[in-house]
Request: fold
Amino acid sequence: MRSWPTKTLALGGDYNPEQWPRPVWDEDIALMQRANIAFVSLGIFSWSWLEPAKGEYDFEWLDTIMDKLHAGGIAVDLATATATPPPWLSAAHPEILPVDVDGHTLWPGSRQAWCPTSPVFRDYALALARQLATRYHDHPALAMWHVSNEYACHNLPCYCDECARHFRTWLRRRYEGLDALNDAWGTAFWSQRYTDWEQILPPRRSTTFNNPTHVLDYKRFSSDALLEHMRGERAVLDELSPGVPVTTNFMTLQHFRHLDYTQWTPTVDVVSTDHYIVDVLQHPRAELAFSGDLTRGLAGGAPWMLMEHSTSAVNWQPTNHAKAPGQTIRDALAHVARGADTIGWFQWRQSRAGSEKFHSAVVPHAGADSARFREVEELGRIAGRLGELVGSRVESRVAILHDYQAIWAAEGPCMPSSELDALEAAHAIHRQLHDRGVTADVVHPSADLTTYAVVVVPQLYLVTDEHAAAVAAAAEAGAQVVVTYFSGISDEQDHVRLGGYPGAFRDLLGVRVEEFFPLGPDETVLLTDGTGTWWSEDVTALPGTEVVSTYAAPPLAGRPAVTRRDVGRGGAAWYLSTLPDDDRLGALLDGVLSAAGVEPTVAALPRGVEATRRSDSTGSWLFLLNHTSAEQTVRATGHDLVSDTAVDGSVRLAPGGAAVVRER
Ligand code: GLA
Ligand code: ZN
Reply:
């Protein structure tokens, strides 16, 4: 996996010059130089400008701006411009439009109105990519290809007839025979047995709940269908522009779950993602950290690229809060702290018209004479000093397992609780670690778990035998393994593992559960040492398993709530059958960390200060981000690259401030 091909910490952003008259372009480039902008993503939504009519191309404006950017020393992440078809295309070919679960067409008029499997759309998109690759493959400004944009942001799943046909082909490859499909989907239930492939439809709105494995397979298919599309674009670039790195911007935000990015990473040279702070979340900063740790997991631990975030407010939340002074810098550094070597914003210049006219940008409506632009300029100076850490890796000895397919299955119809978020435990545990200054890698169960001292398995509802065995092997080899409720329940067909829950982890944990007692969002259950939320269950601890805490109220009073079992050479398997309150969860994790010998990144970290460390063979860098409104002091020695001052024993962080201390 490569990172952005520069040796500096590169700043940049989406650049949409077609929204501005040409004199503004020259001003843009001068301002980019002032702010130390290294790259722009260009042409993402430019299809209707580049191909104003079928087969008629206008590259004059793109030639001009590419040349100007090159002359200005700014590298280009050039889009294949296929993210949104022009109106002439959807007017001529309405069959490319996506269809929702109720059979309603999603009309053009916003963006991404195209069906993932439409062969017509694909032909037109590949033709445009071909033109661009032919024209710009050797342009000196070209540094990377940006394929499409945020795949699946708006057009997945599509339930049209074309998708139905592709789904059947996908199913034939997966199951070979209809008998295998009928077994996998459990169609003995509700008279659903298929006798001909043509009878199979997408899981469109039905009278009541659709078949869960059918729904799960449709999610798998939909992710694969878009990946297939990406591969088509990539093949064009490989043929006509070989050697230039290719990316597409993922969305590793908590709420975006349509694509199994684990399957996608082999198709990109650079893992890039977009992240926006979602104010309505209870813990938005922890979510940002989780997203960074997940993106790093997708990149296999290598540095990654933050393609988009915002300098301040977005335009798509109920109330779009502006960022506090200083937060533009701190938020950017928060991504670098988790392994980003490139920091991009959406967008360079704030639009005057269109849906995103009130979305913040590097150059706001007020112009460059603004606090926000000055903050970016300041970050530009800091980025210059941070070049030395580019390529270094984030240190972590804790893994949190994350699998989009397990999430999809857990979000299927008719579960014990439809109010429980599939990522509830993952985020709660990650946040406790984050608050302690302990960094976790958020990784797929197929990752190499042997390097971790702690492996957390949060609500891994669906798990393959192979992945369950890898978790058990980690405990055998000496790791502290923490499994939560509703893990190991089903296999990859979403068939329940019999003989007592949590089927796949029962032996490892030394517990057996006969029945779930899920809790609603406003319910709690008393424990001997705290309260439990979201879930409880009737646990029996098998011989050799220690009961750490117990339910203290009916109907489960006296039954084990948290257990622990010694495994292998110094390892242990912990089971949390409920989600304990923050204090209790924190205390449990303290016990796990101390058993594993995992220390926080720095000792005596003040509450509200985030700490991570990046290192390589040449040095190590301590990131400290003060999310509080008070000054904070942290023990450190070295040189702070943010303030460019020496640090001798302790570093003072201004309210909302940040430091990056080179330690050796
Ligand atoms: C996404 C898109 C951008 C822009 C931003 C706004 O990330 O990729 O084009 O719409 O959202 O937050
Ligand atoms: Zn479709």
